[in-house]
Amino acid sequence: MKYIPMSLTTIFLFFLFFTTVVSDTEKTSVYDELQRYDFPIGILPKGVIAYELNSMTGEFSVYLSGSCRFMLSSYELHYAPVINGVISKGRLRKVSGVSVKVVLLCWLNIVEVKRICDDLQFSVGFTSANFPIRSFEKSPRCECGLRCIHEDEGELGQKLPVSSS
């Protein structure tokens, strides 16, 4: 056999392809991403089917299989099929797609969540409420919240590629 040297371009393309394949197999779940930013997994319900995260800007989109509603303590929560916002260490801001029912029929949008020591502070703009982080150790299920009899596993959500537009 005759030895044919590889060009620098060929080596570069091989390296680029190899690192892309390796990084695609090491994608994390949306719940892992939450923990990386110092949030408990239970601030998102089970049923996430995909998510996008721009690690440069913190902008994110989380996709559920449909709308999700459940009770948590004395509050009724509603998650739209798409939740958007900006995440940074210990802070979610510009949140859209999550609302809480207060006082009979009044729904308010949760616009910000901050981690303050061992509490999470949920803000609806003009007011906020604090809850212990331990209340969010598990992800609630749509319809039954944390009071479900059977646990579904494997609903971790796949990361979608971030568009460059």
TrEMBL record:
Domain of life according to the entry: Eukaryota
Pfam family, one: DUF538
Signal peptide: 1-23
Keywords: Signal
Coiled-coil annotated spans: none
Signal listed as a keyword: yes
Name the record gives this protein: Uncharacterized protein
Organism of derivation: Capsicum annuum (Capsicum pepper)
